[in-house]
Each structure stands twice: as structure tokens, then as C-alpha cells.
Amino acid sequence: MGTRFLTLCVFTVVQLVHLFFLSIMGQFVVNSNEEIFQRINESQWYNGPLKVQSLYVLVLRKCLNPPMITGGGLIPLNLDSFVQ
């Protein structure tokens, strides 16, 4: 029983570490999206040519629905969901 229990404990810890690294990658995607949104908002994009303004508006709209790495399409993999 001792060896089997130890194997199960090691497997569980390794899986939690793996899930943690996946969550870090998901958090990186979320942070990058938020950073792009903030940088565009802080710039003076509205003073540029009309064509450039329309391109910035498209990027800003895309940032409103951020891409997420999910587990099975059900659970978002980020640090918030990892902590819960």
C-alpha cells in the first residue's frame, strides 16, 4: 500500500504543477490582450488618418471579446480559475 499511495501522491502533485503551468499560459494570453487594449486606448489613435482610426476600432472591438485558453471548452485556464 505504501508504494502505491506514494505513486498516487506524486502523480497528483505532477498533475497540479502541469495544470499550474497551463494556467500561467492562459493568464499570459489574458494579460497580453488587456495590455493591447490599454495601449491603444492610451495612444492618440483618434488623431490619425481615418483609415488608421477604423483599423484601431476593429482591434479595440476584438479586444472586448478576449481569447481564452479553456479546458474542454468549459473552464478558462487562468490563475483565477486555478486558485478557485
From TrEMBL:
Source domain of life: Eukaryota
Q: Which GO terms describe its molecular function?
A: odorant binding; olfactory receptor activity
Q: Which InterPro entries match?
A: 7tm6_olfct_rcpt
Q: Which GO terms describe its biological process?
A: signal transduction
Query: Which key words tag this protein in UniProt?
Result: Cell membrane, Membrane, Olfaction, Receptor, Sensory transduction, Signal, Transducer, Transmembrane, Transmembrane helix
Subcellular location per the Swiss-Prot or TrEMBL entry: Cell membrane
Q: Does the keyword Membrane apply?
A: yes
Question: Coiled-coil annotation: which residues?
Answer: none
Q: Pfam families per the record?
A: 7tm_6 (PF02949)
Cellular component GO terms, alphabetical: plasma membrane
Q: How is it placed in the membrane, per its record?
A: Multi-pass membrane protein
Q: Where is the signal peptide?
A: 1-26
List the PANTHER family hit by this protein, alphabetically: ODORANT RECEPTOR, ODORANT RECEPTOR 19A-RELATED
Could you tell me what this protein is called?
Odorant receptor
